[in-house]
Specification:
The protein is mainly alpha-helical and about 325 residues long. Helices cover about 80% and strands about 5% of the residues.
Amino acid sequence: MKAILIGILSSVFFAVTFILNRSMELSGGSWLWSSSLRYFFMIPFLIGIVLIRGNMKELLQELSRHPVKWILWSTIGFGLFYAPLTFAAASGPGWLVAGTWQFVIIAGLLVVPLFYQTIQTEAGPQKVRQKIPYKGLIFSSFIFIGIILIQLQEASGGFGLEMIVLGVVPVVLAAFAYPLGNRKMMEHCKNNLDTFQRVLGMTLASTPFWIIIAGTGVVTVGLPNWDQVIQSFIVAISSGVIATVLFFFATELVKHDQNKLAAVEATQATQIMFVMIGEIVLLHEAIPSIYSFIGLLMIIGGMVLHSLFSNRKVSLKTNKLNTKSV
C-alpha cells in the first residue's frame, strides 16, 4: 500500500507539467520558453544529485567517448518529446494533451522492431530483430479508442485540420520520440551508468537543441515574463526532479514482487484525473463531456491491462525457469 500511495503522489507532481504548460499558454507565454526553461532549470539539480552520489567522472568520460550518439538520441528522447508537448498545450486543455499522450504505450510497442536482442544459437550469440508484441496491441486498442473519444469533445466545437495538426500530431510525434530516444540510450549505456547519470547526460547532450529553441524564442517573442520563468521552474522541480524520484523510489520498494510492481506502474494513469481536476479548479476549464469521461476510463483501463499482461508474461517465464531447474 505504501508503494502505491507514493506512486499516486508522483502522478500528482507529474500532472503539474500539463496544468502549468496550459496556464503559461493562456497567460500569453510562448511554448518555446516553457519547454527550454524546464531543461535549463533541471541541470543544476541533476548535477548536484550526481555529484553527491560521486558519479560525475564516469558520466563525463562516457559523454566525451560517444558525443554524437548522446546528442542524437538525447535530442530525440528529450527535445522531440517535450517541445511538441508544450506546443500542443496551446491547442486545448492540459487533460486533453495528457490523455492523448497515453498513445506513448502504443508507440512504445511499435518501435520495438528498431531494437535487437542477442540469442544463443548453435553457431554462437546472434543478434535478432525484436518483434512487435501483437497481444499487447490488443490492450492498446482500449487506449486508442479512449483517445478518439476524448477528442470528440473538441469535435463538437469544430474538429478541423488545424486542430489535428496543432493538437494531435505533435503529441503523437512526442509519443514516438520519448521511448525511442530513451531506449536507444539505455541500450547504449547498458549497466554502465545509473538512472541519474543517464538523465543528466541526456539533459546535457540535448542542451544544444534547447539553446536553439530558446534563441528562437528571443528572436520571435522576446524574453519570457517573470510568471513564465517561475512556472517553468516549478515544472522542472515538480516533474523533472520530485515526481521522477518518487516514482523510482516506489518501484524500488516493490521491485521483487511483480504483482505490486505492476500496480505501482498502473498508478501513473491517475495523472489524467489530477490534470482534469487541477484545470477545472485552477484554470476554470470546462467540465469534460460524457465522451471524454468514457475515453479517460478506457485509457486508464488499457494501461491497467497492460501492466497486468506484462506481469503475467514475467510470471509465466519465471514458472518455466523454475520448472526447468527442478
